[in-house]
Amino acid sequence: SERSLIIKAIQQNDFLNRLDEEQINMMVECLSWDECNQGKVIIREGSEGDTLYIVADGELNVTQAGRYLRTLTRGDVFGELAILYNCKRTATVTDLPHFAKSRNRPSVWTFNRASEWWDVIVPGFTNTQWLENFRKSEETFIHLCNKLRPAMERRDTNFRVCVLKRKE
Ligand code: CMP
């Protein structure tokens, strides 16, 4: 089934296989499915990115500075490096028509770090995972957040009202 394919893909990935069973199940619940447009760049080298992908169908190509690196097929995880190392995308992933060997239009399952990481993955962390991921316990983390919050909140001053910045 699709679910077992996704779970297998997660377990085979060096980064995602650190998640325990409960976290994997929650991650599977958060995945959305997306069809790729032909010739569309899915990940552009050097850009910012918060999304991790699993190939659902078809074949995608990984290139770096225009050099061919690898073809990704069903069940392959990609886009994990920018999330793991908090870096820019290290390669370009496209569905180039002249590379396409399969007749199926490529599609992917996507997982967005921005919301799911904090809403779903972190709340499921064990004490050990808190130490591994944050180098501190959950209590210390919350204590620090509460200490820092007053200094970071927007406030009106005598000179002007605070500047509203729309979330991007
Ligand atoms: P990320 O850097 O987030 O975005 C581009 C993705 O391409 C990257 O994550 C990896 O999933 C993948 N990638 C980068 N380099 C290679 C490589 N040498 N071989 C296969 N896949 C790669």
Characterization of this structure:
- By secondary structure, this protein is α+β, with helices and mostly antiparallel strands.
- A hairpin with a 2-residue loop joins β4 (60-64) and β5.
- The mean pLDDT is 87.
- The protein is built from 6 helices and 8 strands, in the order ααββββββαββααα.
- It comes from Polypterus senegalus.
- One of its GO terms (cellular component) is cAMP-dependent protein kinase complex.
- Belongs to the cAMP-dependent kinase regulatory chain family.
- Pfam families: cNMP_binding.
- Keywords: cAMP, cAMP-binding, Kinase, Nucleotide-binding, Transferase.
Mean pLDDT: 87
Largest sheet: 4 strands, antiparallel
Overall structural class, as computed from helix and strand content, comes to alpha+beta
Bound compounds:
adenosine-3',5'-cyclic-monophosphate
Helical content stands at 25-40%
Using only CA atoms, what is the Rg? 20 Å
- Figure out the total of helices: 6
Spatial ordering of strands, largest sheet: 1-8-3-6
Assign an overall shape: globular
Helices and strands, in order, run as: HHEEEEEEHEEHHH
Beta-strand content estimate:
15-25%
Distance between the termini: 37 Å
Number of strands: 8
Return residue spans where pLDDT drops below 50 for at least 5 consecutive residues. none
Blueprint of the fold:
Blueprint: H1 2-12, H2 21-30, E1 32-35, E2 41-43, E3 51-57, E4 60-64, E5 67-72, E6 77-78, H3 81-84, E7 92-94, E8 107-112, H4 113-121, H5 127-134, H6 138-152
Antiparallel strand pairs: 1-8, 2-7, 3-6, 3-8, 4-5, 4-7
This protein binds adenosine-3',5'-cyclic-monophosphate (CMP).
Adenosine-3',5'-cyclic-monophosphate binds at residues 43, 49, 62, 69-70, 78-82, 89-91, 93.
